[in-house]
Specification:
The complex is a heterodimer of chains A (267) and B (359). Chain A is α/β, with parallel strands linked by helices. In chain A, β4 and β5 form a beta hairpin. A 6-stranded mixed β-sheet of chain A has the order 6-7-8-3-9-10, with helices on both faces. In chain A, strands 2-1-4-5 form a 4-stranded antiparallel β-sheet, covered by helices on one side. A two-stranded antiparallel ribbon of chain A has the order 11-12. Chain B is an all-alpha fold and 359 residues long. Chain B has one domain: Orthogonal Bundle (ABC transporter involved in vitamin B12 uptake, BtuC). Helix content of chain B is 78%, strand content 0%. Chain B contains 14 helices and no strands. The longest helix of chain B has 44 residues. Chain B is globular and about 80 Å long. Chain B starts with a helix and ends in a 7-residue tail after the last helix. Classes of the chains: A alpha/beta (267), B mainly alpha (359). Chain B: This is Iron ABC transporter permease.
Chain lengths: 267, 359
C-alpha cells in the first residue's frame, strides 16, 4: 500500500517555469485523483515529473523515498505511466506487444500465468477479438486501450495516466475508467489521471486537482471543487453544476465568457 | 474455480493457441528462407567461368585431395571464400540494417544511408591514394584496416553526436546523411587529385566486390557476426517492445537511450567489418530487413534470424547473378545489389502502400 507525496513541485523547461510550487493531496491507496485544467496548464508535465522523466524540484516521494532515488527495477512495480502518445501502428499484434513489454521489463510472470494476465485485461477492455491483429489496422481508440493494458500489466501500486480516454468513444471511455477504478479497488492502488472531460472527473474521481498556468488552483473532493466560478476562472466558460438523478454532480457548459483569453491557446 | 476465473483461463488458452499458430507459420517461413539461402549458395558455388558441377563441389569439400589441382584451386581459393563471404557479409548487413531501423524507428535507416559505407569507401580511397607514402606497409593489410577504421569511426561519431543530443532518432539520421555526403565529396576530391591508376583502383573498390576476400576475411567477418548475434538476441524483447513506440517503451521503464547506444555500437562493428573487406554494398542492409519483416512480422525472436537469412540469401543470389548477367564477365556484386535493389525496394514500397507501419 504505497502512498505518494507531491509537494511544492517546480519544473523549468528550457529556462521557462512550467510548474510552480504544485502540491497534490496525498495519494492514498484505492483513491483516484483527477488532474484537470485547460491546455498548457502543466498536467502532462506534472505527470512526467512524478514518474521522474523530467527533472523537478520539491518533494515527489513514495512512502517517504524520493522517486528519483528508487532504482529502475523497483520503480516498475511501484509506478506506471501512460503517456498521451498511442502505441505506434506496427505489424505487431496487441498480444505480441503485451508479451514483449512483460518480458522486456522483466515481469515475473511468464507462460500461462502471463497469458492469464493478458487475457484478463484484454477481456475487460474488449480486445480479445483484436488480440492477434496488427496494431496498424486497429483504430486509435483500440490502440489507446492496448496502451492502458501495458500500463497495468505489472500491477503497479501507483498509476499516472495522461488523458487515457482521449481517443475513446463514450462506451470505451466509461469502460476504461471503470477498469481503472476496479483495478484501484482490487489492488489498493492509487492513480493520478489527467482528463479534459470534467464530467468524467466528477463521476469517477475521489479528488480533483485543478491546474492553470502551471499552478495549483484548487484541490479536494469533486463536489466541493468544481463550481461555476472555478470553471469560469480556469476555462473561461460559463457553466452550471447540477446534480443528476443518480446524485452525481454534472457540469453543463453554456458558452465561452469574455474572460476566455485567460486560458492559453490550444497546444 | 469461479466461472470468471474459468473464463479467463479459457481466454488465455485461446490467446496462446492463436499465437502458436502464428509462431508455427513464422518458423515455417524461416525454414523457407533457409532453403532459399541453401539454393542461392549452391547456385553461387556451381556458377563461374569454369564448369564444376554440384557433385564435384560436394566431393571436393568432403575430400579436397580427390579433386584435380585446377578444380581444387578454383573451389578452395575462389568459389568457397567468395560464396562464404557473401553469406557472412550479407547476414551482418541484414542484422545491422534491421537493428538500425528498429532503434531509429525509421524504414530508411541502414549502414549505407547512415554514411558508414561511404566512410569505408573514403578510408579505402585514402589508403589507395596514399599507398606510395605507406610503401612499408603491406597494401593487402592497409586497405581493409583503413576502411574499417574510417567506417567504425564514422559510426562512433554518429553515435557520440546522437548521444550528445539525447539520442533523438531524427538527429541520428540527419547526421548520417550529412556524413554520407561529406565522405562522398571527400572521396571525389581524392580521386580528382589522384593518379589515373589510383582512381581506377578506388572505383573498383568502392563498387563492392566479393572477389577481394580470402579465408582470413571470411573467418574475421564470420567471427564478428557470431560474436554480435547473441548480443542482439539478448535484446529481442526490448527491440520488439520498441516497435510499440519509443515514448511508451520509455514510460514502461525500458532504458531506450542505453539500448540505442548498445545497438548502434553493434551496428558500427557489423557494418564496418562487413564493408571493409568487400567495399560498399548497397540495399542489402536496407531491403533485407523489410523483406524479413513482411514475411515474419515484427517479433524480433523471428525477425532477427530472418533478417540475417534474408541478407545472406540476397548477397548470395547477387553473387550468382554477378556471374551470369554478362557472359564471360563477373560484374562487381555492389553493382548487382544496387541495380536489383532499386526495383525490389520500389516493389516493397508499393506492397506497403496504405499500411500505417512506421507512423
Amino acid at each position: 500500500m504505497a502512498v505518494m507525496t507531491v509537494r511544492d513541485v517546480d519544473v523549468r523547461l528550457g529556462g521557462r517555469p512550467i510548474l510552480s510550487r504544485v502540491s497534490l493531496p496525498p495519494l492514498q491507496p484505492g483513491r483516484l485523483t483527477a488532474l484537470i485544467g485547460p491546455n498548457a496548464a502543466g498536467k502532462s508535465t506534472l505527470l512526467r515529473a512524478l514518474i521522474g522523466a523530467i527533472p523537478a524540484r520539491g518533494t515527489i516521494a513514495v512512502d517517504g523515498t524520493e522517486v528519483r532515488n528508487i532504482d529502475r527495477h523497483t520503480r516498475r512495480g511501484l509506478l506506471s505511466y501512460m503517456p498521451q502518445a498511442l502505441p505506434q501502428g506496427s505489424s505487431l499484434s496487441p498480444y505480441e506487444l503485451a508479451r514483449s513489454y512483460a518480458r522486456a521489463t522483466e515481469l515475473a510472470l511468464a507462460g500461462p500465468d502471463l497469458d492469464r494476465r493478458i487475457a484478463e485485461l484484454f477481456s475487460m477492455l474488449g480486445l480479445m477479438d483484436d488480440a492477434h491483429r496488427p496494431m496498424q489496422v486497429l483504430s486509435g481508440g483500440k490502440r489507446q486501450l492496448v496502451g492502458l493494458c501495458l500500463t497495468v500489466i505489472h500491477q503497479p501500486a501507483i498509476l499516472l495516466l495522461d488523458e487515457p480516454t482521449s481517443a475513446l468513444d463514450l462506451h470505451w471511455q466509461l469502460a476504461a475508467i471503470s477498469m481503472v477504478r476496479g483495478y484501484l479497488d482490487r489492488n489498493g492502488a492509487s492513480a493520478v489521471m489527467a482528463l479534459h472531460d470534467v464530467n468524467l472527473a466528477l463521476r469517477f474521481s475521489d479528488e480533483i486537482a485543478v491546474l492553470k498556468h502551471g499552478r495549483l488552483v484548487a484541490a479536494g473532493p469533486p463536489a466541493d471543487i468544481v463550481t461555476p466560478d472555478l470553471i469560469a476562472d480556469v476555462y473561461g466558460v460559463a457553466a452550471r453544476v447540477e446534480t443528476c438523478s443518480a446524485g452525481i454532480p454534472v457540469l453543463l457548459a453554456d458558452r465561452p465568457t469574455s474572460t476566455a483569453t485567460s486560458t492559453a491557446s490550444p497546444g | 474455480m469461479t466461472s470468471a476465473a474459468t473464463e479467463t483461463t479459457l481466454a488465455a488458452q485461446d490467446l496462446a493457441a492463436g499465437h502458436r499458430r502464428i509462431a508455427m507459420h513464422r518458423i515455417a517461413m524461416l525454414v523457407v528462407l533457409a532453403v532459399i539461402l541453401l539454393v542461392a549458395l549452391v547456385l553461387d558455388l556451381t556458377t563461374g567461368p569454369a564448369r564444376i558441377d554440384l557433385a564435384e563441389i560436394v566431393g571436393g569439400i568432403l575430400d579436397p585431395a580427390g579433386l584435380d589441382v585446377r578444380t581444387r584451386i578454383i573451389l578452395w581459393q575462389v568459389r568457397l571464400p567468395d560464396a562464404l563471404i557473401a553469406l557472412s557479409v550479407g547476414a551482418a548487413l541484414g542484422l545491422a540494417g534491421l537493428e538500425t531501423q528498429t532503434v531509429l524507428n525509421n524504414p530508411l535507416a541502414s549502414p549505407y544511408t547512415l554514411g558508414i559505407s561511404a566512410a569505408a569507401s573514403f578510408g579505402a580511397a585514402m589508403a589507395i591514394v596514399l599507398e606510395p607514402v605507406l610503401s612499408f606497409v603491406p597494401p593487402m593489410a592497409v586497405l581493409p584496416v583503413t576502411a574499417f577504421a574510417f567506417s567504425f569511426g564514422a559510426a562512433l561519431l554518429i553515435l557520440a553526436l546522437s548521444a550528445l543530443h539525447g539520442g533523438a532518432t531524427s538527429t541520428v539520421i540527419l547526421y548520417g546523411i550529412a556524413l554520407h555526403f561529406l565522405c562522398n565529396a571527400l572521396t571525389s576530391a581524392l580521386q580528382y587529385f589522384a593518379s589515373a591508376e589510383a582512381v581506377e583502383r578506388v572505383v573498383f573498390w568502392t563498387v563492392g566486390n566479393l572477389t577481394k576476400a580470402g579465408w582470413t576475411e571470411v573467418g574475421i567477418v564470420t567471427a564478428v557476426f557470431l560474436l554480435v548475434l547473441p548480443l542482439s538476441l539478448r535484446h529481442v524483447w526490448v527491440l520488439t517492445a520498441l516497435r510499440g513506440g519509443e515514448v511508451l517503451a520509455a514510460s514502461a521503464g525500458i532504458a531506450v537511450g542505453r539500448v540505442r547506444i548498445a545497438v548502434m555500437a553493434r551496428v558500427a562493428l557489423l557494418a564496418a567489418i562487413g564493408v571493409c573487406f568487400v567495399g560498399a554494398i548497397a540495399f542489402v542492409g536496407l531491403v533485407g530487413p523489410h523483406i524479413a519483416r513482411m514475411l515474419l512480422g515484427e517479433d524480433h525472436r523471428y525477425l532477427i534470424p530472418g533478417a540475417c537469412l534474408t541478407g545472406a540469401a540476397m548477397l548470395s543470389l547477387a553473387s550468382f547473378l554477378s556471374k551470369v548477367l554478362l557472359p564471360g564477365v563477373i560484374v562487381p556484386v555492389g553493382i548487382v545489389t544496387a541495380i536489383v535493389g532499386v526495383p525490389v525496394f520500389l516493389a516493397l514500397i508499393a506492397a506497403r502502400r496504405g499500411e500505417a507501419a512506421w507512423r
